[in-house]
Amino acid sequence: MISFENTKDAFAYKTTEELKQANFLFSTMGQPLLLKASLALVPKAIRWHLPFTKTILRKTIFRQFVGGATLEETAPVTSKLEKYNVKVILDYGVEGGKDGERGFDYSTDEFLKVINFAATQSNVPFMSVKVTGIVRFGLLELLDEKMHAADGTLITRYKAALEAISDIERQEWERVVNRLEKICSTAAQKKVGVLIDAEETWIQDPVDAITMLMMDHYNKGRVVVYNTLQLYRHDRLAFLIDSYQASIERNFVLGTKLVRGAYMENERKRAADMGYPSPIQPDKESCDRDYDAAVNYCIQHIENIAVIVASHNEHSNALAAEMLHEKGLPHDHAHVHFSQLYGMSDHITFNLAKAGYSVSKYLPFGPIEDVVPYLLRRAQENSSVAGQTGRELSLIKKELQRRQN
């Protein structure tokens, strides 16, 4: 039975001074009024170029959750993690949608740079792609709407949606497909995995469809492309099973990254405002149940599913680890990988690595002004997930106390 209680292994890569800084940061996140004020002021301070704002951010939240301002700055972090058998998923943490087509082409080039850089690093098996970085949001909304109006399988509905839009919109979408094709083909050549991020429900269907088509092309034998499933949606467990059936019929390996989700508040608000049933699970217990069922399903079908257990939940990680152990499968099985965000849940990551499991840190990078939205989400996530900040703090304090004794 794996344990996540060993703080000596969990924080071996951090100096005592770094632990004290983390203790201060998570303590701040645990104060709702102070956090709320900070979340409101930081974007304005950046926008108004207020003195010392970037310096303060760089020394606090940026240092905790981000690998660096550039790809090259991530290299020392990557090397440091490698000493503890922890791999890295590189994430170009810049929000998309700027400068239209020119901006989408620029983002594509940046993703290609990430792939080429990852290929030179010995412990960077994956990189992350946010499709909204290479396509207009409104076009995704339109395609999703048309897909919902059609019947049949995911791909059947996708093809129907393409027939239902204008020639100009279809040409625009072809450019999107070409961008993703270029990313996936380069990744296949360089032997780097591509993790396609999940999006909001009202743009997710075309993302699922294009990702499925990329898997159909590139996941013959070796796994290159992974789709991301948000299990806080009540329909994702069924979608996982449907995706598996499609992979069997089309003879490709299904790549899936399992997360709980990142857009819950927006999803519920939009559903209430627009008067349609919420796509979100009715409660946390339902989400946890479906997540663990998805982990179980993937490992039961491990020959044809490659799964990334991307979770900060101790039980879900322990479940996957114990299933591998009980089945007599290698802890570092090629089709099972674990991942946590950089700066969070070190007790899970490093104890898994110590036990020989394949595990990584999800490592964003980018100019500080561009990754601020990501940083604010991390701060909100720590404050909103029940017990997250308290858990991080208690473990940090436990290790500081151990080092003093």
What do the pLDDT scores average to?
Answer: 91
Amino-to-carboxy terminus distance? 28 Å
Structure class: alpha/beta
Strand order of the largest sheet: 1-2-3-4-5-6-7-8
Q: State the helicity in percent bands.
A: 55-70%
**What is the CA-atom radius of gyration, in angstroms?**
21 Å
What is the string of helix and strand elements?
HHHHHEHEHHHEHEHEHHEHEHEHH
Q: So what's the overall shape?
A: globular
Number of helices: 17
CATH architecture level-2 label of the domain at 97-310 = Alpha-Beta Barrel
Low-confidence stretches: none
- Using the coordinates shown, work out and report the CATH topology of the domain at 97-310: TIM Barrel
CATH class of the domain at 97-310 equals Alpha Beta
- Strand tally, please? 8
Indicate the proportion of strand residues: 5-15%
Largest sheet: 8 strands, parallel, barrel
